[in-house]
Task: inverse folding
């Protein structure tokens, strides 16, 4: 079965009678991708579920205002990214901690999570990613895990392609150094 086109979803959403069906199609098409994007940023399953719900509430409320000047997925992705960053910033303020402390707490939660089923190398990769500054982490996740093109990331983050490539390269080098470090940190 051929995936439904975004333009068709938007046309259906514009008609009151088919609005709910259109939104269900949109959820079916993008919910899992957006879940994993948020999850890689906040790591905690429950926080991710809450954020995912907030993202799609915002999508529902604003979909009729979508201007088609970017891809629908890119627009939803931007909302998810902004919600996740806002959440992480609130965590920093609430706990009166630095991003490094929040990253440390996220790493501890990841190890203790019953939802994490990766092996030791995956755990080390996730810990390495958590050592990155927030923007590098975001760019690395978008490029490595979500396989987004630099042009798409540029639209989402409002950053030049050249700056993104440089950030990704630096992030990859830091992760490589962390993983190949002789200290076994499991």
Result:
């Amino acid at each position: 079965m051929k995936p439904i086109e975004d333009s068709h979803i938007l046309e259906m959403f514009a008609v009151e009678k088919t609005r709910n069906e259109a939104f269900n199609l949109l959820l079916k098409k993008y919910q899992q991708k957006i879940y994993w994007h948020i999850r890689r940023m906040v790591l905690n399953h429950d926080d991710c579920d809450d954020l995912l719900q907030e993202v799609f509430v915002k999508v529902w409320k604003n979909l009729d205002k979508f201007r088609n000047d970017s891809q629908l997925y890119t627009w939803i992705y931007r909302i998810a990214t902004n919600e996740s960053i806002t959440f992480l910033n609130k965590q920093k303020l609430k706990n009166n901690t630095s991003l490094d402390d929040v990253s440390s707490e996220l790493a501890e939660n990841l190890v203790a999570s019953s939802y994490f089923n990766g092996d030791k190398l995956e755990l080390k990769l996730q810990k390495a990613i958590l050592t990155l500054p927030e923007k590098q982490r975001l760019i690395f996740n978008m490029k490595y895990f979500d396989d987004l093109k630099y042009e798409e990331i540029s639209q989402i983050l409002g950053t030049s392609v050249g700056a993104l490539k440089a950030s990704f390269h630096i992030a990859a080098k830091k992760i490589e150094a962390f993983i190949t470090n002789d200290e076994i940190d499991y």
Q: What stands out?
A: The domain at 1-117 is CATH 1.10.1740.10 (Rna Polymerase Sigma Factor; Chain: A).
